[in-house]
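task queued by scheduler; priority normal; single chain, no ligands, no partner chains; default sampling; output format set to structure tokens
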Amino acid sequence: MDTNTAPEGATRLAEHSPRLDWAKLAPEAFKAMVRLDTAARQGLEPALLDLVKIRASQLNHCAFCLDMHSKDALAAGETAARIIQLDAWHESKHFYTAREIAAIELTEAITVLTDGFVPDEVYARAANEFDDGELARLIVAITTINAWNRFGVSTRLVPGHYSPAS
């Protein structure tokens, strides 16, 4: 099914234009972000990182990143059900492992800092599921997707055109 096609008889609204191509205009910063993203992924399960990226992107309302990371996750074998349920993970914990829930919960705490500091209980649950090196890289990965989200939202990157690498 073409996800960029409106239902029969319906007319889709026009897509917005991006504000600017920040990656082209600040190539060294873009390359540094790519290196940081690559470093953060070392030693963590790709499926877990996909969930982290999708959840942070949901919270930050980054449609471009949601499109990209959902498509990447599906291409890597993630189920649509787990992606769909991610926004309601509190009520659908049975879709995920304890390790994934700890990562998702930590993602929310780090992403939504306006609620205060990362609660000790959230950190403790994550520390129980990840060794110190994994936890450090997970925190870097969460911080990195939040930065990517902010680039995407502030420059109004356009969702819907991303295709995962084969």
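post-processing summary
- Residues 132-154 form the longest helix (23 residues).
- The chain has a mean pLDDT of 94.
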